[in-house]
UniProtKB/TrEMBL annotation:
Residues 26-214 form the KASH5-like coiled-coil domain. GO terms for cellular component: endoplasmic reticulum membrane. The gene is LOC110193353. Keywords: Coiled coil, Cytoplasm, Membrane, Transmembrane, Transmembrane helix. Pfam families: KASH_CCD. This is Lymphoid-restricted membrane protein. It is a single-pass membrane protein.
Length: 422
């Protein structure tokens, strides 16, 4: 192979036109390199064979070591299992000791509990007696509350009757107020008529005064001096003459005028004239009083009737400019307000009675609930007493059961110990 390669290389060099000497040198170098490579290859093959042998030896040793490890692992597992078994046995022994101690403590506790149960039984008997007494008292309270409820229902019925009576009186008062309104309207119309009559009388009086003044002027022109007119109107201011005074003056002027006309025809002496004038002045007021007393009495009676009616219902004031209807409406509103307040008081009392009845019903329900709870407690206490008496009659069964459980656990431990020895 080397010769062939060398020949090829030389031929190739020659074909390319290189030098043959140089080619010979390079081929020799290549031959030496190839020889070295072959030598190295042999050495490497030998070393590879050695390594393969060492590898096989190592694999055998590894297999032996794995087998040894597996065996050791098995031994460790068995040792761990034995340690666990010993620990379990120790724990079971400790548990058995604890159970024995617990059983002894429970025995002492049961003895103390029996003593406590005896005390509790006595206390429960006392409680039952107290509950029975409370039950009797609650029954008495229920009877008293039922009587109160009956009384309240009766009083409620009475209040309802009173309320109906108040409503009827209100309706009657409304009807009477309506009648009074109509009567007031009639009185207003009567007052208007009286005012028109007074105005007509004043007009007639003014006409008479005008005629009298004209007659005076005529008499003065004729030479007569009418000083009686001045005496009649003396002391009466012009702006403050009442109807009564105006009528008196009108009649006095008419009478004096007629006398003066008669005297004008037959002139008397001065003393006679003065005496007559005095007599007229003394007689005329009595005549006028007797003539107008009837009319004035009627007017006074009617006005007094109106005043008493309005004063009784509305506290009438004497000022005629005040509106009667407004006063009447105010009084009516006040009366309605008073009646509404009374009705509201009656309704409030009824509501209070209803609330009191509801509170009594709630108390009755509470008493019933207390009775039911006391009965439930009595039954529960009875059951507890029965159960505790049963426990007290069977105190020796519990330690026997615990001893049987302890013996069974000891047998299990003994069997486990035998199995571990084998």
């Amino acid at each position: 192979m080397t010769s062939n390669t060398v020949t090829v290389t030389s031929g190739s060099f020659e074909s390319f036109g290189g030098d043959t000497c140089k080619d010979d040198l390079e081929t020799s170098d290549l031959i030496t390199c190839v020889a070295d490579l072959q030598f190295n290859k042999q050495k490497l093959q030998e070393e590879n064979n050695k390594f393969k042998l060492a590898l096989e030896a190592l694999e055998e040793a590894n297999n032996q070591l794995t087998e040894d490890c597996y065996e050791l692992h098995k031994q460790m597992k068995s040792a761990q299992q034995s340690i666990k078994r010993t620990n379990l046995l120790k724990e079971e022994l400790e548990e058995l000791k604890i159970n024995l101690n617990v059983s002894e403590e429970e025995k002492t506790k049961i003895v103390t509990q029996n003593k406590q149960l005896e005390k509790e039984n006595q206390a429960l008997i006392l409680k039952i007696q107290n509950l029975q007494e409370e039950n009797k008292r609650n029954i008495m309270d229920i009877d008293r509350l039922e009587r109160k409820i009956d009384e309240l229902t009766k009083s409620e019925i009475e209040h309802q009757m009173k309320l109906h009576m108040c409503e009827n009186t209100l309706l009657n008062k409304d009807a009477s107020l309506h009648k009074k309104d109509l009567h007031i309207e009639d009185l207003k119309s009567v007052l208007v008529e009286y005012n028109t009559a007074i105005e007509n009388l004043r007009r007639e009086k003014n006409q008479l005064m005008h005629e009298l003044q004209q007659s005076k002027q005529e008499l003065l022109l004729n030479g007569f001096n009418l000083h009686v007119d001045g005496q009649l109107y003396r002391g009466i201011p012009e702006g403050k003459k009442s109807l009564h005074s105006e009528l008196i003056l009108a009649q006095s002027t008419e009478a004096s005028g007629s006398e003066w006309l008669y005297n004008s025809v037959n002139p008397p002496s001065l003393d006679d004239v003065m005496d007559k004038e005095k007599m007229v002045l003394l007689r005329e007021p009595e005549q006028i009083r007797t003539e107008f007393t009837a009319t004035l009495q009627k007017l006074h009676e009617e006005v007094c009737a109106v005043e008493t009616l309005i004063a009784a219902s509305l506290q009438w004031v004497t000022d005629p400019e005040i509106n009667v209807k407004e006063r009447w409406e105010d009084k009516l509103t006040d009366l309605r307000h008073d009646l509404e307040t009374k009705l509201n008081l009656c309704i409030l009392k009824l509501r209070l009675l209803g609330n009191y009845k509801e509170s009594l019903d709630k108390e009755f329900l509470k008493v019933v609930g207390n009775l039911e709870r006391s009965e439930h407690k009595y039954r529960r206490v009875k059951k507890e007493l029965h159960f505790r008496l049963r426990i007290k009659n069977r105190p020796s069964m519990l330690p026997r059961k615990k001893l049987s459980l302890c013996s069974a656990s000891w047998r299990k431990l003994f069997l486990k110990g035998k199995i571990s020895k084998h």
